[in-house]
């Protein structure tokens, strides 16, 4: 075999292995992004623990969103304002999620708002609890899914808002 033939074969092998490496890397990136989207979509573990203790507040069947209306927004605004006013902010050393407390952190605001909305007839399945980063720390808000968008209830804001 001439050196010209060997050189051509080396380039062919390099091209084949290079293509395979790119395909493997692309598959790994796809898998990583799929796993990250699952992690981001999951509710916080502490919320799951809360649901074990309060199974009646955490049904799995029901509507995933509800119809937006002025009446719904009035209810949400009332709950947002009342709970924000009633609970005194307190940094917790042990993170325990509770509802109907006099003081607590963001998750306690969320669970109290969620409980009041459920008692007012809003399906629990149309709400989700989500964690974000705020000022470098984890922060929990309540999201109510409607046919017009999501209503966000956040103890760091005076009013609930549609996004």
Keywords summarizing the entry:
single chain, 163 residues, alpha+beta, C8orf32 fold, 4-stranded antiparallel β-sheet, two-stranded parallel ribbon, 6 strands
What is the element layout, followed by pairings?
Elements: H1 3-41, H2 45-53, H3 70-86, E1 88-89, E2 103-104, H4 106-119, E3 127-134, E4 137-146, E5 149-153, E6 161-162
Parallel strand pairs: 1-2
Antiparallel strand pairs: 3-4, 4-5, 5-6
Helix pairs in contact: 3-4
Proportion of β residues?
15-25%
Sketch the topology as an H/E string, one letter per element: HHHEEHEEEE
Instruction: Using the alpha-carbon principal axes, give the shape.
Output: elongated
Number of domains: 2
- Poorly predicted regions: 33-41
Name the structural class. Answer: alpha+beta
What is shown here, in short?
The protein is α+β, with helices and mostly antiparallel strands. It has 4 helices and 6 strands, in the order αααββαββββ.
Textual characterization of the structure:
The chain has a four-stranded antiparallel β-sheet with strand order 3-4-5-6, with helices on one face. The chain has a two-stranded parallel ribbon with strand order 1-2. The chain has helices at 3-41, 45-53, 70-86, 106-119; strands spanning 88-89, 103-104, 127-134, 137-146, 149-153, 161-162. The longest helix has 39 residues, at 3-41. Mean pLDDT is 83; it is low at 33-41. It has 163 residues and is an alpha+beta fold. The protein folds into two domains: 1-42; 45-162, C8orf32 fold. The protein starts with a helix and ends with a strand. It is 48% helix and 18% strand. α3 packs across α4. It has four helices and six strands; from the N terminus they run αααββαββββ.
């Amino acid at each position: 075999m001439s050196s010209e033939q060997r050189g051509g074969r080396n380039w062919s092998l390099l091209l084949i292995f290079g293509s395979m490496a790119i395909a493997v890397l692309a598959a790994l990136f796809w898998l990583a992004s799929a796993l990250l989207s699952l992690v981001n979509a999951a509710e916080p573990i502490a919320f799951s623990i809360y649901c074990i203790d309060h199974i009646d507040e955490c049904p799995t069947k029901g509507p995933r969103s509800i119809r937006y209306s002025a009446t719904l927004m009035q209810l949400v605004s009332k709950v947002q304002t009342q709970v924000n006013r009633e609970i005194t902010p307190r940094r917790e050393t042990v993170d325990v999620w509770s509802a109907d407390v006099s003081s607590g952190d963001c998750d306690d605001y969320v669970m109290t708002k969620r409980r009041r909305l459920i008692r007012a007839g809003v399906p629990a399945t149309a709400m989700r609890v989500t964690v974000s980063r705020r000022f470098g720390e984890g922060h929990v808000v309540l999201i109510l899914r409607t046919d017009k968008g999501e209503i966000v209830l956040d103890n760091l804001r005076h009013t609930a808002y549609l996004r």
